[in-house]
Design brief:
- α1 packs parallel to α12.
- With 408 residues, the protein is α+β, with helices and mostly antiparallel strands.
- The longest helix is centred in the last third of the chain and has 18 residues.
- The chain has twelve helices and 21 strands.
- Pfam families: HI0933_like, HI0933_like_1st.
- InterPro entries: BaiN-like, BaiN-like_dom_sf, FAD/NAD-bd_sf, RsdA/BaiN/AoA(So)-like_dom, RsdA/BaiN/AoA(So)_Rossmann.
Length: 408
């Protein structure tokens, strides 16, 4: 007879590994998944390639919860244990770049397939289209869906956050945790595109540049900077550097504070060095207009906007550009500023910031301090990571820790 009968709410990354570990440990496990199949969000990770983890994983790449809390969970099931776990299931991991680890197939479906095969081998019961509406406890737990009841002596809430609701998580895990007495830090979108009201954005929709993005607070202090490919859209800005800094923007906007992004088109040059390069261009091509001069210097679709922002006439000859105007051009090229007015919605965000506060969860076992025999895992906890495999590592680590302790 099974030691424990565990009901896991959520069939995503953390719920699946929790189920596998618990079943291996002798528990009888049922997964309740609100969508028509398990693991939908896994299929979307890493642009469909599934960025399993990151070799540089540590608490410094995570936000929200207490750093010691995060470290305790990550150390119990670290990157090496994660790679061993998936290797035993059949995944051949490769390190692609910047520490990012993918399956050699470069298919997220491979990761979900091996998890499903293990779930089947362990005879874990999966109930899809089963959104949980209520949890009650007498001697054991009673978990209610719209038309059924499920019984267990242990519960794991791994229902995710609010990001990508079409893939599974819709915030219901927060509602359930709150009904059990937990405090929820307001969820906000993270790893998400940023909006701006700049009137020139429609003109440069689709332009991609490699540049340095700096997020600036209301005191003009740099809070974080990231380099990489930035994409201009009709509503604002996107691309990996923007996603990385988006959590800070989301936090500030949630507190009704001013926040902006400065883009440095020539991050590897000082203002003095850039001024010398610009001066040489102007003097070597004196008969070209400033508009013509900038062709081949910056993206063609950005030329008119940069010149207009500097207050210079498009047809002004390079030879006639004054030092003050040149300084203005240099300043804009080094600090192209966009006031951020919002973020894209939940269906565009990759992860949720906020959730169940970590002080109400045991930092070793992930058992609720509010209700005995209830465990928490994954995105439902107030822990979120940077891009690059960190959020999946949190899902694997917290899922394993919750599954192991719930089944002991």
């Amino acid at each position: 007879m099974a030691k424990n009968k565990i009901v896991i709410i959520g069939g995503g990354a953390s719920g699946l590994v929790a189920a596998i570990v618990a079943a291996r440990n002798g528990a009888k496990v049922t997964i309740l998944e609100r969508k028509d199949r398990i693991g939908k969000k896994i299929l979307a990770t890493g642009n469909g390639r599934c960025n399993l983890t990151n070799m540089h994983c540590s608490s410094k790449y995570f936000h929200g919860g207490d750093k010691d809390f995060i470290t305790n969970i990550l150390e119990q099931f670290d990157v090496n244990k994660t790679l061993e776990f998936f290797s035993e299931l059949g995944i051949y991991p490769i390190n692609v770049d910047s520490g990012k680890v993918y399956p050699n197939s470069l298919q997220a479906s491979s990761v979900l397939d091996v998890l499903r095969l293990e779930v089947d081998r362990l005879k874990i019961n999966i109930e899809c289209n089963a959104e949980v509406t209520k949890i009650e406890r007498s001697n054991n737990f009673v978990v209610y869906t719209k038309d059924k009841k499920y019984y267990g002596n242990k519960i794991i809430i791994a229902a995710g956050g609010k990001s990508s609701p079409d893939l599974g998580s819709n915030g219901s895990g927060f509602t359930l945790a709150k009904s059990l007495g937990h405090t929820i830090k307001k969820p906000i979108p993270s790893l998400v595109q940023l909006k701006s009201g700049a009137d020139f954005l429609k003109q440069i929709k689709g332009v991609k540049i490699n540049a340095l993005a700096k997020i600036i607070d209301e005191n003009n202090e740099i809070m974080r900077k990231e380099y990489g490919e930035i994409l201009f859209t009709d509503y604002g800005i996107s691309g990996p550097p923007i996603l990385q800094i988006s959590r800070i923007a989301s936090d500030y906007l949630n507190d009704n504070k001013r926040v902006s992004v400065d883009i440095d088109f020539f991050h590897d040059l000082s203002e003095k060095e850039l001024d010398q390069i610009l001066l040489k261009r102007l003097t070597s091509m004196p008969n070209k207009t400033i508009q013509e001069n900038f062709i081949g210097f910056i993206n063609k679709r950005l030329i008119n906007i940069i010149i207009k922002e500097a207050g210079i006439a498009m047809n002004k000859k390079s030879a006639d550009i004054k030092k003050e105007e040149r300084n203005k051009l240099v300043s804009i090229l080094k600090k192209f500023s966009l006031i951020i007015t919002g973020t894209n919605q939940w269906n565009q965000s990759q992860v949720t910031a906020g959730g169940i506060i970590t002080s109400e969860i045991d930092e070793v076992t992930l058992e609720s301090k509010k209700v005995k025999d209830v465990y928490l895992a994954g995105e439902v906890i107030d822990v979120d990571g940077d891009c690059g495999g960190y959020n999946l590592q949190w899902a694997w680590s917290s899922g394993v820790v919750a599954g192991m302790n719930a089944s002991n």
